[in-house]
Amino acid sequence: MDDDKGLKRKGRERIIPKFSDAGRIIVTGYDTGLPLDDVATALKNHFSRCGMITDVSIPLDSAKNYKILQRCGYIYFVGEGAVDKALQLNGSDMGGRNVSVEAYPYDEDANDMVLVRVEGYDTSLSKTDLKTALSDHFSSYGYLKEFYIIEGSAGAMIYGKDVADKVTELNGSHMGGHKLAVRVTAKPRIPTVHRRQHRQRPPPTLPALPEYQ
Question: Against a cut of 0.90, is the pTM above it?
């Protein structure tokens, strides 16, 4: 699918979509005995018509010494209505097996936190004065915390209702006679990839003890 409405790209940076364009599903019903790459490719091909797929994750079953796939796989999309389209494939045939699909929604407050980078401010301001000025400037969108300055730009985590989608409205705004550049660098509660499990090493195989008669 070529629709990239709402995507934010710059070079090789990861996709940062609008909340309304991000979605994810849980899939079951595939053959857990097949190789991971084969199942992942099959799922990607099966659901590619629904929207841009940003991740297909199928955890390995720790109870099976990480040799068998878990029964639940996760697919992340970017694209308007992608999850609704994927749900229509519930019960569809994929390689001779019927796959089940259910929505895996984000938390209701997922859009209420965003990490931004700000440039263009008066660099003669002290860190304390800059934090105060930016706090006032962003106050109509939310409250600022976790503030830092690095390499001539300021970064901050901002919390507020739907701030993750609204904050870029301040890009190009003026603060103290200076034109600000405001860019979203992360939406921590709207991931576009699944969190990977930490694979543990299986216990070592001990040599067999000699048999004594």
Answer: no
